[in-house]
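Input record (one chain):
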Amino acid sequence: MPAVIAGTGVAAPPNVVTNDDLTRIMDTTDEWIRSRTGVASRRFVDPGTATSDLAAEAARAALADAGVSGDEVDMLVCATMTPDRHNPGIAGSVQHKAGLGDAATFDLRQQCAGFLFGLDLADMLISTGRAGTVVVVGAEVHAGYLPWGDAWQIVLGSTDRAPTAGERALATHHRSWSVLFGDGAGAAVLREQAAATPRSLASPEGILNSVLRTDGAHADLIEVPGLGSQQRPYADAAQITAGLHHPAMNGASLYRLAVETMPAAVCEALEAAGCELDELDLVVAHQANDRILDGARRRLGVDASVMPSNIEHWGNTTAATLPILYHELRQQGRVAAGSLVAFTSFGAGAHWGAVLYREPGGTEAA
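The corresponding structure, as predicted from the sequence alone:
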């Protein structure tokens, strides 16, 4: 039986940082950031809050929404590019913090495409009978990546001092990527169709199919170049001084690939399901930046009512963008019974694809 989404949940960090807040520590303006990214504000956790904390909060919220207890969960899938620590992954910690008993866990590292790949994995587990209930979480705490040092206190408004010349120069140097990111987590509870919607339906519901692709030739388009097994030693002060622990990206090439691959994957998934583009009610796309979203909309021939955005107030939350946006659309009543939804994303690696989903509750069979 195909998997259906029985509940969703979100964890929203408490600290809202606007573009004007960022002008305190770097040479930028609200207009500069908005015009290049579409971001007006983003959220950050308090110091000491880990990615697993946000993930567990989102998982608990999704379980409550689904009316499912933690001991009913068979498996947990966690996607992040910002784990609490390099080893082990966050999934075990999330399982424990969310109260999921001894459910088996998976850690996925497809970056921005992590939640998308997680949906496909959950569907495979459920449709093959290996699991009845699976929680999929996308969660990120980017705050630790951001090269703001003690200037964080200025950003959060906890001090009225001005940044030093060095702090301002460092933050300005990295502004092309650092203004994009925010913290957050989203989760979905997936169950076998019979358990979630015991109905006989005229058309298939739940996850209809998936199109997933990887091309490792593009792995260097966005990467953290240091602190890995290709270095010897694995980590040292020289790498930190050189900034090799910060993300590096080729923005122009990323734009072209994302705008090409996400719409192509959506169309491939539609064709495999025997559906037409004009049957799509929603495209829940990765919130990388508004320029990519605009390009993808043009290529698909849809507008913002079909491919909506919430990046303005969240920023890019990497693996969390899809579940956060989908949860908000559900809360707004925009995911009606029988809606045809395409999830699509492009992430570092490079990984991309689409998952086609029919919201349960459509017309009953005669």
